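FYI - complex with adenosine-5'-triphosphate, inputs then prediction.
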Amino acid sequence: MRLKSIELVGFKSFARKTSLDFGVTITAIVGPNGSGKSNIAEAFRFVLGEQSMKSMRGRRGEDMIWNGSGGVPRSGRASVKLIFDNYDRAFNLDFDEVSIERVVHRDGISEYLLNSSVVRLRDIVELLSQANIGASGHHIISQGEADRILSASSRERREMLEDALGLTAYLYKREDAERKLEKTAENMREVEMLRRELAPHLRFLHGQVKKIEEVSRLQTEISQKYLEYLGRESIYLRVAQEQLEEKRAAPQGERKVLEVRITQLRTEIGNKSKNDNVASKLVVLEEESRTMTQKREQVTRRLGRIEGEEALRERMVKEVGVIIPHAQVEEFVRHVEQELKESLTLDVSLLHARITALLTRTKEFLGRLMHTTSEQHIEQDHARKAEIEQELHDLQGKEKDITAAIVKLRTGMESERETSREIERELFSGMARRSELESILVQLSAQEQILAKERETFRLEFAEAGALIGSDAAGFDSYPLTNTHGEKLTVTEIFTEDRALQQERRRKLERLKIRLEEIGMGNTKEILQEYKETSTREEFLAREIKDLEVSARKLYQLVEELTATLQTRFVAGIETINIEFNIFFKLMFGGGSATLSIVHEEKSRRSIALESVSEKNETTDEVEEGIDIAITLPHKRIKGLHMLSGGERALTSIALIFAMSQVNPPPFLILDETDAALDEANSRRYGDMIENLAQKSQLILITHNRETMSRAGVLYGITMNSDGISKLLSVHFEEALVVAK
Ligand code: ATP
């Protein structure tokens, strides 16, 4: 990488476009005082991103712009452009030539351009640091600032040295990492805050979701329990109904048959009572029998009388000879008595007649009595007796017939009565059975009513299930009913199960429904959606935190690594510089010694960013390193830099600057009258060192020193006329000597 040229337009006294080419390693710029030479060194600072106006002898950006003179009006902008040869890709850009330009406007706003494209200052600074062109400006030594490195604080000195050692890139990287780490920590804090804000809502939603899950679990349970309950109940009701029908069929049939039979029996009984003429017949017969017996007894008595009379007659015949039938005697006596009684009341005339008649009658009786004592009379008696005996016989025959008829009737009636009793018995037992059946049927219809109620309850429960579990409820009849071993239950097993268990199932369902009602979720869909969104956000934030932690850890590691690298390189760099410093110092002073030493200053630094990922979560008392310079001069007892003369200070700082440049050569070095304080002998040594230095860096030397001019390959003369505009001219050594004055 090589600096090709610088181009100034409207910058300070360079009102017009002025371009300086640096085709050689040592370029000297000469010119009289106030012609604008230092403005060129400042142009370098300016374009390299210098922010301190003071270090460019201005108060504000506007001061960098050509301010106009009598003839030439002021400019609106100032620009400085550096052009580098980037053939070796020292700048990590795929261009053979790289231009860096800065433009400042009157309003003070600066613009940076990289190969004519607007970029940030930061991009410029980083790009430059790649080529070891640091921002501390140690490679631009302004006029009167040669001993800046000596007068600087140890911390500033350290910065200059870090810059010189090419550690700026690492520093930038570290700063960058630290910035990122800080940003990451901030993001982490923000994310954590968001998570904290989200947490209660998420907890609430989580609770709601748990409830929803419980509800869904309950619903599933209720659904299953309902299906089981309804399934069992429907089977129970169906079988119970079937069995009821079955139970009813037999008694109903039997009753029907019985009814018919009872009617039949009743009719039969009715018919029997109508047939009572048998009895009346019997009464008649009995009456006849009685009459017949009386008759027979009469005849028997007559027969006895006849037989008595006969026997009496026979005895009278034997004893008296005449036998008068008693009846005739009785009849006669009665007649006499009658006649006599009636005679009592009669007149005597009539009485006479009556007694006469009575005497006649007595005569007749006595006459008749005489006749009956005959055998003919006896024969008559025999005939009568035979007649009576015949009559008796007839009567006895008839009586026998009647008795036989009565017996027959009685026997008939008896058997009839037996039959009736049978019918009655059957009727009664039939009626008893019928009421038995009726009570059975009453019982069955009571059962039927209970069953009907149960069916109604079932219907309501089914409707309720439908409202609760929807169309699933309809699937109860295909719900698999199994025992605890998962075996399918038979209808009989289901039906014969203790009803108490089914009641318990119903109670359980009721309890579940109450529980479900108690939880009573609102819009579950919305809650679930919100929960999903919130937890997704939470997961995202958690991931974010993790990612941030990972990157924070990485950044922390990077910072640590960079710090370590910086430390190592710095210590090593200082050691190498020390060697060169000592050599240059000895060369300048012809002896003595110079040493840089690292000093530690404790500084409390508390990085929140580091804290979050650092194991040692505490305030770190960071040790800041500064650089001290210790020198000894030959033949002099010098105890500190402050005791050096101006020349000695210049020599010492030149020795240090050269040492620094030697160790890590910058691409170019601008020295503005660094040699001003040197005497002739030292100027020569200075010239030698410059040549030595030019082997590694391009040198741009602003000088009045002849010796220095003599070492330059190209000399530029700067002049200024009355118009106040700096003008550039290429001059030869002799001309330069003139111009320089
Ligand atoms: P010396 O040899 O004495 O150090 P020099 O050659 O380095 O001098 P400079 O200091 O670079 O000279 O130039 C300063 C000149 O630039 C002054 O004359 C000053 O008026 C002029 N100048 C500075 N800023 C502006 C500006 N914004 N517009 C016009 N001229 C300016």
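Residues 1-133+667-741 form a domain with the Rossmann fold fold (CATH 3.40.50.300). Residues 12-13, 31, 33-39, 63, 65-67, 143, 724 surround adenosine-5'-triphosphate (CB under 6 Å).
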